[in-house]
Amino acid sequence: RIVYLNGAFLPENEAHISIFDRGFLFGDGIYEVTAVLDGKLVDSDLHMTRLKRSVREIGGELPISTDEIVAIERKLIAENALNEGVVYLQYTRGAEDRDFLYSEDLPPTLLLFTQQKTIAHAASAEKGIRVKTVPDQRWARRDIKSICLLPQVMAKRTAKAEGCGEAWMLDGDYVTEGASSTAYVMTRDGRIITRGNSQVTLPGCTRLAILDLAREADLKIEERPFTLEEAMDAQEIFLTSASNFIAPIVEVDGQAIGTGEPGPVYRRLRQLYIEHAR
Ligand code: PDD
């Protein structure tokens, strides 16, 4: 694979980062994951807008423009002949001798690489995903796409141990979001409910696009927190993320949801999203 690191395109085994990188020592960095379908970036503008926001919120500055970043992403897609998968971007504060405080002129580290992944025809899109709930043990600024993902790594491990493909994080009775996805329920009377954006969750790019498509399709949407009880009683539930687009959830904590099969509203939205992505 050819990767991008601080201005250079290199084979992955020639790309090296300092042991003093603040991303490594402090988790002082942010990231983005953008899907690639048919060799094209999906919802690239939304991801670039969120990237700029995350960098601004941690008091950083991108070393190049987002137009230049998109050009790098396209070059990586071409160089690696990537048809379907993701482009991963990581921005860290840079490398210098360890200290909580950093030099104001420290050049950041910017890394991008591609990963192959089946998304449009993923098995989970047909089979559905089982979810395990866990307490949301993350920090209070979940709107920043921080590289500090230990709570999510632990949540996914717990989920996997119970045969589940995603963890839903709970704040008391309320579902905040998935460990790496936005959470939705559809009530028995057809209302799609997902949390509004705030510091409590990551503002999903796929979420924005899906809600637009759902509105165009005249589906009813309520942006508000929902409880685990509402999820258990839902007609359908699903998740969205760049790496899954939209996927059906068929079971929560061992209990089947709705019919226990991927539902028609999910199928409709998935089709609309794939058309939008193409
Ligand atoms: N995760 N919520 C969390 C906590 C996430 O980590 C993600 C994405 C989302 C969905 O956001 P988007 O639709 O913009 O991908 C919601 C990425 C895919 C990851 O960490 O790999």
Describe this structure in words.
This protein has 278 residues and is an alpha+beta fold. It folds into 2 domains: 115 residues, D-amino Acid Aminotransferase, Chain A, domain 1 (2-Layer Sandwich); 155 residues, D-amino Acid Aminotransferase, Chain A, domain 2, CATH 3.20.10.10. Helices cover 29% and strands 30% of the residues. It is built from 8 helices and 16 strands. Strands 7, 8, 9, 10, 11, 12, 13, 14, 15 and 16 form a 10-stranded mixed sheet that branches. A 6-stranded antiparallel sheet has the order 2-1-6-5-3-4. A hairpin with a 2-residue loop joins β8 and β9. N-(5'-phosphopyridoxyl)-D-alanine binds next to α6 and β14.
List the helices and strands and how they pair.
Layout: E1 2-5, E2 8-11, H1 22-26, E3 29-37, E4 40-41, H2 44-57, H3 66-79, E5 85-92, E6 109-116, H4 123-127, E7 129-135, H5 150-161, E8 166-171, E9 174-178, E10 182-186, E11 191-194, H6 205-216, E12 220-223, E13 226-227, H7 228-232, E14 236-241, E15 245-252, E16 255-256, H8 264-277
Parallel strand pairs: 7-8, 7-15, 11-12
Antiparallel strand pairs: 1-2, 1-6, 3-4, 3-5, 5-6, 8-9, 9-13, 10-11, 10-14, 14-15, 15-16
Bound molecules: N-(5'-phosphopyridoxyl)-D-alanine (PDD).
